[in-house]
Specification:
Structural class: alpha+beta
Mean pLDDT: 82
Radius of gyration: 33 Å
Low-confidence stretches: 1-7
Distance between the termini: 129 Å
Helix content: 40-55%
Number of helices: 7
CATH topology of the largest domain: Helix Hairpins
Number of domains: 3
Number of strands: 8
Strand content: 15-25%
Largest sheet: 5 strands, antiparallel
Strand order of the largest sheet: 4-3-2-1-5
Order of helices and strands: HHHHEEEEHEEHEEH
Length: 271
Amino acid sequence: MMDFLLQEPNALTERLWGLFDNLWPALLMLVFGWWLVKYIKNLVVKSLGKRMDESAALFLGQIIHALLLAMLFIAVLSQLGVNTTSLLAALGAMGLAVALALKDSLQNLASGFLLVALRPFKKGDYVEGAGTGGTVDKLTMLHTYLITPDNRRIMIPNSSLTDSNLVNYSSEPHRRMDIKVGVSYDDDIRKVKEILLGLADNDERSLKDPAPRVIITDFGDNSVNFSLRVWATIDDFWYLQWDLMEGVKLAFDEQGITIPFPQRDVHHYQH
């Protein structure tokens, strides 16, 4: 009996020392591995950033980071003596259940790969999709972040961008603006065209090739409707459009050109 009691503390001590022998290498592996995973991620993002857009490189870096972390944790558990074979089987079954529960998130992840592969936009592009518009800030595993012109940050699921129409306003260096204005039927349309073309030609921000054009788009109920079509660079587009719209109103006022209000003629007959 006494021998048994003496053997038990010795066995317990050996187990504790054995656990300690496995614990400190596991902790060392975890700390060093965590640093190494982060270093590899940053290195991959920096390397990919030289060949592709920054947002796409960040997306791939996050995928690599998640995979390396999973491998690190499995290695640490193996060092602690955990049977990783049975653990991987359990994780596989758990992963199937999680995949069914998070199918929308997996769809966003797959859409993220499509956005990286198709490259419909890059960081800094102004895009419109999923009912909103803004400048692309970054692409993550599940979401795309946009900054609106009034400096709001919008998070859009990746699947919403791939499942709907996506417009990129920054993909081409030049854009055409259509400034529409209606004038009275009593005004001289030749004079109207001369004023509109003069405003466009006198602004150095409007491109000369293609040259500005003025066309009559339709005859409305209250006005003859014109469209001033001017090409400009992406950087000058909005400022030029705002200045031309202001210039049209001021020039029409000076030249006596009328922009009519909606009106209706009522004829009263006395029976």
